[in-house]
Specification:
heterodimer; A: alpha/beta; six-stranded mixed sheet; 9 helices; 38% helix; globular; B: alpha+beta; Immunoglobulin-like; MetI-like fold; four-stranded antiparallel sheet; 10 helices; elongated
Chain lengths: 245, 418
């Protein structure tokens, strides 16, 4: 357990009559890249949103770095600093520059000085290849650039885990690669990542473990090799066939 | 020693009044020429130790002359003295009155006697008091915008003469230029200042109320949401005139009744309160719409970075919401300027009230109102244009721009189809 970064224990989530998650249990090691696949509506995104409590789980417990984040006692704002999240729709703050987006949370939440925050911010923007766009506003950036700023923004809080929620789905095809490259570099640097995506090549190449979710339960989890070449479950085979066609 | 057989001396209460039955205080009282004392603030004094028999009692006061009563006193008397004010010799008062039924006093009219300026009406009792020898005199009275009146008066000293003044109806046609200019100047000098004061103060308070209500209406706390909703829905559902009357008359009455102490709010303050409360409700809806127009993803992104709910509202949601609602807030200010004319019903001197006053004063209810209309339009139309410009500007800023596109003028769609 000592090197577990995220532990999910029998997670349930219900929206009214609809039970989206029917008992998900996962143990994600430090530095591991877990890719979650599944048809739309299967509850993939909901798992991510429960991990940083954007959705309130109906049942089950979640631990991050050994600390329980579910339950009333959890300090949400503190907990969320440990978990970075990148969204499908970027959600950059349009009234702030790229650098402003990246430095806001370090300054307001971690109370860092402006200089200190900007130093970190510029370094991160450099890492995602956008040094020269530091003073551009989101509307002046392409989708791929916006998403890379969003990744830098999440990283600025020095999170232990990064959650990626279909981050390339809203991008033009030619812009997908630049975002995936950033994520690949991040994975190689040892970041613990949970990635919900439809990019099978990325899953194969970067993922340490692939998980297929359907109907609110984990259907199959395996190494990429095994998952793609030797699926164990009928449902997995069907899913892979659907993607191929 | 008083002989035992003699009747005991007694005291005599006296009251001193003037011609108008007002009690006169500090009048000196003398008994047989010896000073006894002064009357109190109710004009009363009691002369002590008056032995039975004949005595004279004299009362005097500066400016009122004296009065003496000489009679036999035997113990049961009380006395009343009437003192008359002493007017200067040959004093005459000239008063100017409106020739119409109201017969209201006209102040500020110049009075000339035999071609010589002697004063302006309006001081003291509303007229001019001066010294005039008995006999025939020519009295001329004149006031800007009113017809001069010249009369010959056979002066009897001590009299008051009333001179009626005709208004401008006969002289000022419906579109008289000088009356128009006069109306404009009066409405701007006396009215516009208050109109602007009312609008700006009420606007600032309204924005604060509106911001609180807007945040309250979108709060996750149910109680706050209900309170804000009741305020907004309640105020928006009532006529603003009723709200004004409630603040100016209803509220003071209620508070006086509850506390048992006289409580008053002056008309100007009432007007500001009513306008602020009213526009606060409308601005609450504007801010609510603005906050809701900022996408939910913005809050989620902010919260996922560890910002608290308050921080998210302050740094992320409000800056975007305010930018969205800026044109609507501008329109609200224009509405407020127009709404401030309700001050008329509680006699706050703003532009509309002043227009009404000028109209009544000069028998012409068209020209002053026309002038007032033009004053309002001179403010509201340019402000409206500014709001339109703002709308356009922020529309551009919201679409994708780089330096070049920003400078381009964007034609409104309608122009392309002309």
């Amino acid at each position: 357990m000592s090197n577990s970064m995220v532990v999910i224990d029998d997670l349930h989530k219900r929206f009214g009559d609809l039970e989206v998650l029917k008992g998900i249990s996962l143990d994600i090691k430090k530095g591991e890249v877990v890719v979650i696949l599944g048809p739309s509506g299967s509850g993939k995104s909901t798992i991510l949103r429960c991990i940083n409590r954007l959705e309130e789980p109906t049942g089950g417990r979640i631990f991050i770095d050994g600390e329980e984040i579910t339950g009333r006692k959890a300090d949400l704002n503190k907990m969320r600093q440990k978990v970075g999240m990148v969204f499908q729709q970027f959600n950059l703050f349009p009234h702030m520059t790229a650098l402003g987006n990246v430095t806001l949370a370090p300054m307001k939440v971690q109370k860092k000085s402006k200089q200190e925050a900007e130093k970190i911010g510029l370094e991160l923007l450099k890492k995602v290849g956008l040094s020269e766009k530091a003073n551009s506003y989101p509307t002046q950036l392409s989708g791929g650039q916006q998403q890379r700023v969003a990744i830098a923004r999440a990283l600025a809080m020095r999170p232990d885990v990064m959650l990626f929620d279909e981050v390339t789905s809203a991008l033009d095809p030619e812009l997908v690669k630049e975002v995936l490259d950033v994520m690949k570099n991040l994975a190689m640097d040892g970041m613990t990542m949970i990635v919900v995506t439809h990019e099978m090549n990325f899953a194969k190449e970067v993922g340490d473990r692939i998980i297929l979710i359907d109907g609110g339960v984990i259907v199959e989890q395996n190494t990429p090799d095994q998952f793609f070449t030797n699926p164990q479950h009928e449902r997995t085979k069907k899913f892979l066939n659907m993607i191929k066609n | 020693m008083v002989p035992a057989s003699a009747q005991a001396s007694h005291s005599i209460p006296i009251i001193v009044e003037n011609d108008w039955m007002s009690r006169m205080e500090n009048s000196s009282v003398y008994l047989d020429g010896a000073f006894q004392g002064l009357t109190d603030n109710r004009g009363q004094f009691v002369v002590p130790d008056v032995s039975p028999g004949q005595h004279n009692i004299t009362v005097t006061k500066d400016g009122y002359g004296s009065k003496t009563i000489d009679q036999i006193f035997n113990g049961t008397e009380s006395l009343e003295f009437k003192l008359s004010a002493q007017k200067p010799a040959n004093s005459v008062t000239i008063v100017a009155l409106d020739a119409r039924e109201s017969r209201s006093k006209i102040t500020g009219a110049s009075v000339y006697v035999d071609g010589q300026f002697v004063g302006t009406t309006g001081t003291g009792d509303g007229g001019v008091t001066l010294s005039l020898s008995p006999g025939l005199h020519t009295v001329k009275i004149s006031k800007d915008m009113l017809e001069d009146n010249t009369t010959r008066i056979d002066v009897v000293p001590g009299s008051t003469y009333v001179i009626l003044m005709e208004g401008g109806a006969r002289r000022y046609s419906i579109l008289d230029g000088s009356l128009f200019i006069y109306s404009l100047s009066k409405e701007i000098i006396y009215g516009l200042v208050n109109t602007i004061k009312l609008s700006i103060v009420a606007y600032c308070i309204g924005i604060c109320i509106g911001l609180l209500m807007g945040i309250g209406r979108t709060s996750s706390n149910r109680i706050i949401r209900v309170v804000a909703s009741v305020y907004v829905e309640g105020v928006r559902g009532l006529p603003i005139l009723l709200q004004l009357l409630f603040v100016n008359f209803g509220l003071p009455f209620l508070i006086s009744d509850m506390t048992g102490q006289q409580f008053n709010i002056d008309a100007f303050t009432s007007c500001i309160i009513a306008l602020s409360v009213n526009s606060g409700a409308y601005m609450g809806e504007i801010f609510k719409a603005g906050i809701e127009a900022v996408s939910k993803g913005q809050t989620e992104a902010a919260r996922s970075l560890g910002l608290s709910q308050n921080q998210s509202m302050r740094y992320i949601i409000l800056p975007q919401a305010i930018k969205i609602v800026l044109p609507a807030l501008g329109n609200e200010f224009i509405a407020l300027i127009k709404d401030s004319s309700i001050g008329l019903v509680i006699s706050v001197t703003e532009v509309t009230m002043e227009a009404k006053l000028v109209g009544v004063e000069y028998y012409n209810t068209f020209t002053p109102l026309l002038a007032a209309g033009i004053i309002y339009l001179c403010i509201t139309i340019p402000l409206g244009k500014a709001v339109q410009y703002m709308e356009k500007k922020y529309n551009i800023a919201n679409t994708r721009t780089n330096g070049k596109a920003k400078k381009q003028k964007v034609k409104p769609l309608s122009e392309e189809f002309v």
